[in-house]
Design a protein that fits this description.
Largest sheet: 4 strands, mixed
Helix content: 40-55%
Order of helices and strands: HHEHEEHEHH
Strand order of the largest sheet: 1-2-3-4
Structural class: alpha+beta
Length: about 180
């Protein structure tokens, strides 16, 4: 009988502790929500443009690269990974890559489907944003069958050179399908 009472008391203490912890967690969560609600959006937000959006070398490269692409493709700079991918199961990899910025992404215009990522490497800068893509991003792009074209901005590229590099990275079946539609 005394063992039963002891087990019952331990069980009730455990339930009481669980309820107290639950209530405390709810209060903390509620504080976070009300804290954000108190923030006011005034008439004059204190913001400024982040300029330059692209470096001079990147801007020059993008202009030549865009002109070298076949007309069925369009290139956009500074695409954030979370705008291209969504989680498919676990969030570990997604959380690691979601805010990574891709230098240039080439899309098939008709479907606005990404077909290639260009990683621009500018050795004159040591900033993280201007260096190579990290390992998780590269593995993720590979798993999505998105080829990565790594280019060093150490010289001015010609249109034909960029077109050849683009075509070399592209899937031959995709290129053949485009030729059929013409």
């Amino acid at each position: 009988m005394s063992n039963t009472i002891l087990v019952l008391i331990i069980f009730l203490v455990f339930i009481a502790l669980a309820v107290v912890v639950y209530i405390m967690l709810k209060k903390v969560e509620k504080k976070k929500i009300t804290k954000n609600k108190k923030a006011k959006f005034d008439d004059k937000p204190r913001l400024k443009l982040s300029l330059p959006f692209l470096t001079e070398k990147q801007t020059k490269f993008l202009a030549v690269f865009q002109n070298s692409l076949p007309s069925e493709y369009v290139a956009f700079p500074k695409i954030v990974m979370k705008s291209l991918v969504k989680p498919n199961g676990g969030l570990v990899v997604y959380n690691e890559i979601e805010n990574e910025v891709l230098d240039i992404v080439v899309f098939l215009k008709s479907k606005m489907q990404p077909v290639l990522v260009v990683d621009l490497i500018d050795l004159s800068f040591s900033e993280k944003t201007l260096t190579k893509l990290n390992e998780f991003v590269l593995k993720s792009l590979k798993s999505l069958n998105l080829p990565v074209l790594e280019l060093t901005l150490d010289h001015d590229y010609e249109k034909i050179e960029l077109l050849n590099l683009f075509l070399d990275k592209m899937d031959p079946v995709s290129i053949a399908a485009l030729k059929k539609t013409k």
